[in-house]
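Cross-posting from the modeling subforum.

Setting up a comparison between two proteins and wanted a second pair of eyes on the formatting. Protein 1 (sequence, then structure tokens):
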Amino acid sequence: MQDDLAFARRDFYPAFWLRNSYTDNKGSLVQMNTTDIDRDIRAFLIDHFLFGRAEALRDGEPLQGNVIDSTGALELVAYLQEHFGITVEDDEVIPENLESVNKVVAYVAGKLAAKA
């Protein structure tokens, strides 16, 4: 029944309101849209690297060198894997996927959509 409900919800939202689901680290099925993914990633970056300074996180600005360093990139990948239940392959840790907040959100949304 829950699968039918999730499918119905996905059809209800417009294409830009991409709905995704994942199993969190407690084994519960979680429904997310790109806004939720964006919110969670921003919160992680602000809390762990910017010491609560949300204004320092800009959409188009590269994360590497401005927000995170190479160790921070590994922390971000670990967070994405644990929080969203996705696997980030070594060959996917590239600027096209992780260069900015928007690219990270799109990457995670794509990985979740592929799992669904």
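Protein 2 (same layout):
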Amino acid sequence: MTGIKRIKYLTPEHDCSYNDTIVCPYCGHEEANPTEYLQGSGQGDDIEINCSSCDKEFIFSYGTKITFSSRCKDCDFELVATGEGYNYYECKRCGNSKCNKEL
């Protein structure tokens, strides 16, 4: 956007974004059991709760982190370690691993 000039950068008092638990934006309290507040709600919904420490009402939402893993259909395994009667192999292309008992 042209003509817009930022006049200030704010540093929030409490880190309330993308945490492993719910953080109160007023006092910074971290909820010990955040999943108890999820019943009857869906991902991305705004959920109103009262902080269990300062009792102020605030809104939170939650998301689900998706990760992906992939491997070759035809892995090119190479022996990388041996020990305790087993051989350990890894694919040179994708890093997929397997372990076989020595014969």
